[in-house]
């Protein structure tokens, strides 16, 4: 097996390409393919990497103990604890209240709305993981836009980007920073300049990046972003619901009479979903058995499977165009003419609230095929439409495989919307009417978070111990219930970290990182060191767009450190460039999870991210590289 062979300044020859390196490069390529194509969920891909690395131990050097070491790694456990602490803060409603207060003065001015969005997002993202911050603020910012008669499309991408630049204010702002700190500490055994990051190691540069990025988002971004979703959007029109929703009446003698919604679903077929049942209450009162019938509401939204049906009931059904034309041929029901708009589908808030649900990163719905009937039974919400990758699914939605960032148009009673908003695996794109926050615990939650930061900053104990102690304090004080600990964790991130950490170790141990670095070193013959540093930033940013930010850090930090040593530069400067670039992915929706969260609610196209993100990426690349050179030298 090849030993670790870091480059030093005196090294003049390129390391020899060995069989070990070829095998490890093959594993890296395989990982990139799976991350890019998303053929497997990211957590499953991470487990697969562990298996492959251990099976190929003679070449990778990864034995079983090293293969699973990522699960016990300090970075992994720290990220887990910080996600729980962020979950505790979110249960108190502090972030949402901050967003509302900052937006109160915004009015109809787009710049004031953007200022409120950036000012409420960036600072908070410096001390809370920015992923849940964006999830919490999506409905707040959407409501700000609607109240100010502004398209939500003008504010939601800036929300995501503001959280990313804010995440670079402290060590705990993103999971990427924590992972980069751990990798830097491990590389420190080879490169003395490298060490574990302190809490505010790069805050001075982070402040500059956040300020420049914030000014760009406030004064420039709205000129580049189109109005994909109109202000106070009519969801029914946006999702073309009228093309796929029809009313049918239960006729006399129908086999549906005295049956249930479940019976009707079987008769109508799997392509037809009953989203509402409308009943004439006055007719019920005239019946002799009125006591039983009158207990059924006049309009049932997302009706239960056991809801009884009677003669004359109107079933509001969602299906595809072909099935709508075939409704007239189904025995026992008769299509009902509808005047103009979707008259049968009540949008009265008392009957049911129309809203969007965004599938989040750790949702158990990711990878499942959409079954509107099962969704209705489990969540008491009727699915009316679907956007996937920002595009409206205009035909059959039954059986469509769901992915992160997909957006469902649903109608649900107010109490159901409250319950959905409390779930950790879906983002409700509008604020619930009766939010259930533990506001009385807010001071305690803030005190715990301040204590964690203080202990880690003063280095009384490592950030890992401080964060775990904070988790215990959250439970003991009642900020979080014990069963809520697991819901607060984005488990796919934890598994991703556990999977890519041994891959990074293999890159180092086999000399693969040094080999790649030697290719970069060759460019130093005709490029200034500052330009080489800038190229590392750009390459990291591009790679992050197609794989996860955490994976790009693990793969590129060893290469960056070795390249810096090879050209006689400061390895810490190169490590910082990679860390900042991996945490700011602006070119598309795939590179960073917060970009996916705003994809559906903003109605965005893929190119919208590039249109506003490419100039920002270029500006921040120059600002970051010059800042690193000024503060730490190259």
UniProtKB/TrEMBL annotation:
Originating species: Natrialba aegyptia DSM 13077
A Gene Ontology BP annotation from the UniProt entry: potassium ion transport
Protein name: Citrate transporter
Topology term for the membrane: Multi-pass membrane protein
InterPro entries in the cross-refs: Cit_transptr-like_dom, DASS-Related_Transporters, RCK_C, RCK_C_sf
UniProt keyword Coiled coil, yes or no: no
Subcellular location: Membrane
PROSITE patterns: RCK_C
Transmembrane regions: 17-37, 44-62, 74-94, 114-138, 205-225, 444-476, 488-507, 514-540, 546-565, 572-592, 612-632
One GO MF term attached to the UniProt entry: monoatomic cation transmembrane transporter activity
The keyword Disulfide bond is assigned to this record: no
Region: Disordered, residue numbers: 280-304
Biased composition (Basic and acidic residues): 280-290
Keyword terms, alphabetized: Membrane, Repeat, Transmembrane, Transmembrane helix, Transport
GO cellular component: plasma membrane
Residue ranges occupied by any RCK C-terminal domain in the UniProt entry: 233-333, 342-426
């Amino acid at each position: 097996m090849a030993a670790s062979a870091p480059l030093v300044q005196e090294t003049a020859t390129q390391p020899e390409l060995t069989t070990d390196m070829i095998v490890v490069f093959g594993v890296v390529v395989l990982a990139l393919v799976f991350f890019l194509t998303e053929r497997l969920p990211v957590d499953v891909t991470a487990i697969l990497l562990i298996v492959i690395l251990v099976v190929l131990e003679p070449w990778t050097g990864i034995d079983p103990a090293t293969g699973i070491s990522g699960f016990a790694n300090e970075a992994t456990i720290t990220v887990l604890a910080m996600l729980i602490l962020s979950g505790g803060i979110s249960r108190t409603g502090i972030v949402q209240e901050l967003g509302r207060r900052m937006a109160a003065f915004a009015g109809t001015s787009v710049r004031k709305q953007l200022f409120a969005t950036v000012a409420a997002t960036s600072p908070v993202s410096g001390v809370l993981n920015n992923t849940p911050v964006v999830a919490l603020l999506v409905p707040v910012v959407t409501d700000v836009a609607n109240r100010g008669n502004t398209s939500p499309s003008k504010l939601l991408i800036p929300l995501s980007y503001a959280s990313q630049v804010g995440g670079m204010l402290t060590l705990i702002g993103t999971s990427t920073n924590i992972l980069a700190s751990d990798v830097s500490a491990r590389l420190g055994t080879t490169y003395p300049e490298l060490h574990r990051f302190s809490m505010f190691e790069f805050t001075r540069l982070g402040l500059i990046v956040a300020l420049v990025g914030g000014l760009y988002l406030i004064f420039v971004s709205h000129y580049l972003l189109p109005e994909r979703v109109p202000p106070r959007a009519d969801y029914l029109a946006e999702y073309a619901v009228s093309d796929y929703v029809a009313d049918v009446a239960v006729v006399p003698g129908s086999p549906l009479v005295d049956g249930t919604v479940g019976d009707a679903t079987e008769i109508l077929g799997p392509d037809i979903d009953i989203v509402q049942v409308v009943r004439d209450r006055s007719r019920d009162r005239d019946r002799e058995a009125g006591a039983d019938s009158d207990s059924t509401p006049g309009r049932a939204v997302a009706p239960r499977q056991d809801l009884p049906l009677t003669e004359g009931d109107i079933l509001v059904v969602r299906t595809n165009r072909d099935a709508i034309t075939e409704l007239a041929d189904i025995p026992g029901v008769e299509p009902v003419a509808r005047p103009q708009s979707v008259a049968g589908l009540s949008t009265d808030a008392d009957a049911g609230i129309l809203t969007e649900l965004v599938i989040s990163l750790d949702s158990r719905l990711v990878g499942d095929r959409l079954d509107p009937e099962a969704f209705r039974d489990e969540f008491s919400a009727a699915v009316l439409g679907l956007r996937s990758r920002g595009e409206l699914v205009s035909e059959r939605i039954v059986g469509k495989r769901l992915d992160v960032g997909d957006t469902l148009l649903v109608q649900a009673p107010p109490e159901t919307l409250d319950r959905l908003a409390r779930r950790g695996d879906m983002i409700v794109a509008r604020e619930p009417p009766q939010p259930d926050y533990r506001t009385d615990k807010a001071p305690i939650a803030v005190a715990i978070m301040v204590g964690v930061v203080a202990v880690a900053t003063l280095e009384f104990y490592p950030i890992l111990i401080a964060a775990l102690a904070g988790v215990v304090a959250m439970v003991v004080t009642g900020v979080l219930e014990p069963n809520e600990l697991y819901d607060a964790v984005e488990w796919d991130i934890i598994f991703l970290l556990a999977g890519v950490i041994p891959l990074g170790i293999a890159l180092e141990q086999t000399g693969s990182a040094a080999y790649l670095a030697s290719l970069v070193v060759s460019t130093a013959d005709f490029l200034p060191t500052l330009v080489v540093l800038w190229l590392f930033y750009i390459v990291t940013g591009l790679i992050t767009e197609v794989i996860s930010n955490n994976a790009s850090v693990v793969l590129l930090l060893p290469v960056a450190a070795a390249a810096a040593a090879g050209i006689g530069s400061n390895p810490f400067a190169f490590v910082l460039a990679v860390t900042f670039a991996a945490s700011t992915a602006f070119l598309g929706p795939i590179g960073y999870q917060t970009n996916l969260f705003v994809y559906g609610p903003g109605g965005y196209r893929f190119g919208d991210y590039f249109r506003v993100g490419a100039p920002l990426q270029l500006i921040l690349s120059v600002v970051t590289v010059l800042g690193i050179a000024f503060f730490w030298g190259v």
